[in-house]
Design brief:
Order of helices and strands: EHEEHHEEEHEEEHHHEEEH
Radius of gyration: 19 Å
Largest sheet: 7 strands, mixed
Number of strands: 12
Distance between the termini: 32 Å
Shape: globular
Helix content: 25-40%
Structural class: alpha/beta
């Protein structure tokens, strides 16, 4: 075990490009600006070797920049380096740590994400997926994709289900991975990598069930979901409320009775390719002090970049 930090909770993220590095800088600033008691938690920023030069300017202030050299079998696959980074973080984490919080660089923290802190009571904190995509409704028979995943984690099927937030499908448990928390002592992130490697190297599975882009993109998320519900006590899975991982990238598709009225009301959001420049956002309210902060970070004159 590394003695990289002795803090009980660590934030994690990963960048693969200089554009993602700029987003990660804004994400980190949001944690530091709005995280309150969590604002000074350590942050581990993994940098894939596809980024041309290491980001020395982000080091310090509780931020550690860590090179990530994922094996070819993993990094050639959608989000494989994310799975690898999580497993590396779990391996590095001291025994006394209770929580690793993963947040994608295309996300922001707007209020202290207190429910990500697992403490002694939970082993994970997750949101259901926003849309069904490759998920299966609870009454459907298993397709080859999910059957292969469940077999890889050692079960024939699962009995738990969730409701998707945007398109309102009742599906077998399938969780969003923009941001989530895991207790590193569970060993779940290593299992995630091991299972992912098995399935991306399984030529029959790949040729039969992962030929289309959608299944290739969401394989990592489907495997994580299967592991969460088959390896953890269901009472130790914290299902997060809708103000966590709110899909601003899908805001116009969110049902009106679920649609956020103001960004300030949310804890953390995924925005992906949508701008958060307050001068260009016209579909959600933004109040101070968030409005000024977003102007500083997202307006063309203030956008932080490398």
């Amino acid at each position: 075990m590394s003695n990289t930090t002795t803090h009980q909770t660590v934030f994690l993220t990963l960048v693969r490009t200089t554009g993602e590095r700029a987003r990660a800088r804004i994400l980190i600033d949001s944690i530091r600006s709005f995280g309150e008691a969590m604002s000074q938690y350590p942050i581990w920023l993994f940098e894939a070797d596809t980024v041309k030069a290491p980001c020395k300017s982000l080091e310090g202030m509780g931020i550690q920049v860590l090179p990530l050299n994922a094996p070819n079998s993993v990094r050639r696959y959608y989000f494989g380096d994310k799975v690898y980074a999580c497993a590396r973080a779990e391996e590095m984490t001291p025994q006394e740590a209770q929580t690793l919080i993963w947040i994608d660089p295309g996300c922001l923290v707007i209020k202290p994400p207190l429910l990500f802190d697992l403490g002694q009571s939970f082993d994970t904190a997750v949101r259901p997926v926003h849309i069904r995509n490759v998920g299966l409704t609870y009454t459907e028979p298993l397709d080859g994709f999910w059957k292969g995943i469940y077999e890889a984690v050692g079960v024939k099927d699962i009995q738990s289900s969730v409701e998707t937030f945007v398109d309102l499908h009742h599906i077998r448990s399938y969780f969003n991975s923009h941001a989530f928390a895991v207790n590193p002592s569970s060993g779940l992130l290593r299992q995630w990598l091991d299972t992912f490697e098995v399935l991306v190297k399984d030529e029959e599975f790949q040729l039969s069930y992962c030929q289309d882009e959608l299944h290739r993109i969401f394989l990592h998320q489907a495997i994580l979901s299967a592991l969460l519900v088959t390896t953890l006590d269901q009472q130790r899975i914290r299902l997060l409320p809708p103000d966590y991982n709110y899909p601003y990238n899908l805001h116009q598709s969110v049902p009106l009775d679920r649609r956020a009225q103001a960004l300030n009301d949310l804890v953390c959001i995924a925005y992906e390719d949508r701008t958060l420049d307050p001068n260009m956002v016209d579909d959600i309210e933004i109040h101070e002090p968030l409005r000024t902060w977003l102007s500083t970070n997202f307006a063309p004159s203030g956008l932080k970049n490398e």
